[in-house]
Amino acid sequence: MSGNLLHVNATVTCPHGARATILPAQTRVVVAGNPAASVADLDTVTGCPFPPSGPPHPCVTIRWVAPSTRIRISGSPAVLRSSTGLCLAADQAPQGPPNVSVVQQRVVGR
């Protein structure tokens, strides 16, 4: 499955519309002037509208479960627009897949 590489300024949201922030684990590999995203990055979600009690819980982080199979960034698989991820609550309960809406258009990978 191919797709454009994500970078730290890509627009990623939880299924409930809250914005995710990507804190890069590396700054050497750059795409469109921004560090490229990998599974080693810390992807946090802030402002998820769901209350802390009762299902569903608010999303607080993203775990990428099916990243690039061919591209590695500092030893970690790269994250593509087509990568599969899971938004997780603080208790690690899955809340749904993240939505990637804006990403750089030049670098494509598998």
Q: Beta-strand percentage?
A: 35-45%
Give the topology string: H per helix, E per strand: EEEEEEEEEEEEE
Write down the overall geometry: elongated
Number of DSSP strand runs: 13
**N-to-C CA distance:** 6 Å
Q: Please outline the major beta sheet.
A: 3 strands, antiparallel
Mean pLDDT: 88
Put simply, the count of helices is: 0
Structural class: mainly beta
- Spatially, the strands of the biggest sheet line up as 7-10-11
Taking all Cα atoms into account, the compactness measure Rg is 13 Å
| Percent of residues in helices | under 10%
- Model regions low in confidence, pLDDT < 50 over at least 5 residues: none
Describe this structure in words.
The structure is a single chain. With 110 residues, the chain is mostly beta strands. It has strands spanning 3-4, 11-13, 20-23, 30-31, 34-35, 42-45, 61-66, 72-73, 76-77, 84-88, 94-96, 99-102, 108-109. The strands form 6 sheets. Strands 7-10-11 form a 3-stranded antiparallel β-sheet, with no helix packed on it. Strands 1-13 form a two-stranded antiparallel ribbon. The mean pLDDT is 88.
Please specify the SSE layout and strand pairing.
Elements lengths: L2 E2 L6 E3 L6 E4 L6 E2 L2 E2 L6 E4 L15 E6 L5 E2 L2 E2 L6 E5 L5 E3 L2 E4 L5 E2 L1
Antiparallel strand pairs: 1-13, 2-12, 3-6, 4-5, 7-10, 8-9, 10-11
